[in-house]
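User: ok so my PI wants both of these folded by tonight, can you help

Assistant: No problem, let's get them done. Here's the first:
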Amino acid sequence: MGWHLLVWIPLALLGLFWSLLCWAAKGLIHWEGWRKGVEITQEVPLFEFPEWLKDLLGIGWIEEIQAALVSFWPQLHEWLLSWPDLGSWFTVLLWFVWGVGVLLLLGAGGLLSLLIALARRAQPQRTAGVSA
């Protein structure tokens, strides 16, 4: 039983992470700010990290990504507006991708559980208390 828990607990955590990632992607696509103009970038609150944390983690690259996104925003906004109904087909696609991911995780868990069961069956059985 313990070996199976070592398989299924990490897979359950991966499934949770996968679900949260898909949920965040759906929320990002359905965000009302995409349909607004460039001025929406001024309304997005900035999360500032303390300087000691920036130095400790070396996260100066986050500011570089933010600057690149702000400079790329007009092209991204124009591309998103060119799609007539981005949200509806993306939601269907996202549910499909989520389902495939969950099925892959379940299949991996089942396969690993089967390998554990086969390995336990192949071990010789110990008989306690049998004397010759």
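One down. Here's the second:
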Amino acid sequence: MTTDLARAPIDDLVTIRDWLRYAVTHMSRAHLVYGHGTSNAVDEAAFLILSQLDLPIDDVNPWLDCRLTTDERQSIASLIAERIDMRKPAAYLTHAAYIQGRKFYVDERVIVPRSFIGELLVEDQLAAIVPDPMAVTRVLDLCTGSGCLAILAAEAFPNAKIDAADISEDALAVAQRNIRDYGLEERVHTFKSDLFDGLPAGTYDLIISNPPYVTADAVAAFPPEYQAEPTLAHLGGADGMDLVHRILRDAPKRLAPGGGIIVEIGDGQATLEAARPDLPFLWLDTETSKAEVLALFADDLKAMK
């Protein structure tokens, strides 16, 4: 460790409040980049401190005046120093990421999960495209990564079997760990698959996907925090839409009558709509996103030009 936090005056920093202030100062001076579950130094420092102490991560305020042992202070100093020196997302340091309060194991083999589809699954079970969650019996999660969306889909659709597919064996190993942690081995099954190539036969009532959709230029300009994630999980070609086009092309053959597909595409709305004027995209917004998640019904895709 090279940062001053590794040599922090731990005798002077006694409470969580002390450490939060000290960490925010050093993280701000280091010009860290956020976006992997937090958006600023205060929230990131609170997440790291609370995680290190095995405290609930949703609110630091009840704990601010708690005094820390010497060992706790040393461990927090080391963790904050690692965040600054290594420039890794905090989730990789704690091996934990959260979607709507659900905790998932993560490491450098997978992108840190932050999909807006997870928010939609938890909040209303994708009501815009799924009229009856109890009627959904088979779901596909393409590009599953950590498996978080497959797990949330199992929660949202209790009668469904879930296939979770990814081209990365490393990612599938992480997904399998999370599936075991949630006790869903009987309902969620993983497949090594290049999108639809490698999946078992049959159709799905629902397909969800958060595929790579970042442009090549944007990936080349990534700050260290984003470079720490697998490039495979980000790179979507020159305009970011290479895999999205493949998914939309092949999805009609794998959707059951009356089924639907949900795909997250980042800021690619204008690019995709210009390329596919034949498709009546339905854009599903959340509190923190606009036109980043699309929905299509099976009939719309099967009638496409």
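The domain at 4-94 is CATH 1.10.8 (Helicase, Ruva Protein; domain 3). Strands lie at 97-99, 102-104, 138-142, 161-166, 188-192, 204-209, 255-264, 282-283, 293-297. Good luck tonight!
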